[in-house]
Amino acid sequence: MHAVRDLLAAALLLVAAVLGALWVPASWVERTVIDQQGFLAVTQPLADDPDFQRTLTDSAVAEILGDERVPDWVSERVTPLAEEQAARITGTQLYGSLWDVTMRELHGALFAPGPSDLDVDLGPAVDSILTGLEDHLPFGIQVPRPDDATVTLATIPDVPLLTKASGLAPWADRLGPIALLLVLVALTVAAHRRVILTLAGVGGILAGLAVWWLAGSIETVVPGSVDQAVFLGPVVQVFQERFAAEVMPQGVIMMGAGALVMAVGLVLLGLRRTA
After folding, report:
1. What angle do CA 226, 228, 233 make, to 5 degrees?
2. What pTM was estimated for this model as a whole?
3. Are the C-beta atoms of residues 242 and 175 closer than 8 Å to each other?
4. What's the CA angle centered on 98, arms 125 and 169, to 5 degrees?
5. What is the arithmetic mean of pLDDT over 223-251?
6. Please, are residues 262 and 198 in contact by the beta-carbon 8 Å criterion?
7. Dihedral-angle region of residue 91 (phi above 0 means left; psi in -120 to 50 means alpha; beta otherwise)
């Protein structure tokens, strides 16, 4: 009977260790990637990145001058003026709104099943560029406004792991408490509680080690089709750096807590033997 109780307790500890290892990364993904506001908070500093700024402004200029109603000779003369006006948009409230819309569209595309186009309406930027352009155009030159300024900035690859994670998001923050509850139940049903307490510490160390390893190896875990994708790649790399910086210390804390519990269990075992 004692062996059955200890075997049940060990099984509960195994499940608790797995849930504990999943808890930290799952909670981070839920509040930073799945939650739209958390996603926008991480991506907001990227609005000041020159490469992203050029992606949006160059796309707006291309939409203006790519209109079939604009002759080639007009396009050649107007291009420098349009690029100058586009550069003035960055840092303005209009650009901030455009960036926010782009990131919201990107967030939605990440959770769409299958590959999806990142379509953004650059109409406000196009209007601003043309308004500033009209005062500098040579006499007789007119640039028509495009009927539809929606452009495809990139094609976002399928990320099935995020789609599945979004369905489990409500459970992310509960994994830790559930793991702790399982440990308490294991200690309650165990026949040799000191041994089980020591094993609980070992499980905590292993769970923390798994979290630490995942944080340090996140760049190899994320598929290359995602972190090297056009437009999406630099965004994913920022999240990878953030994940490593925030999750790795929590893995170390888990290992430390597990080591402490294991030490207490070993001390209690030693006291029992000497008693």
Report:
1. 75
2. 0.87
3. no
4. 160
5. 91
6. yes
7. left
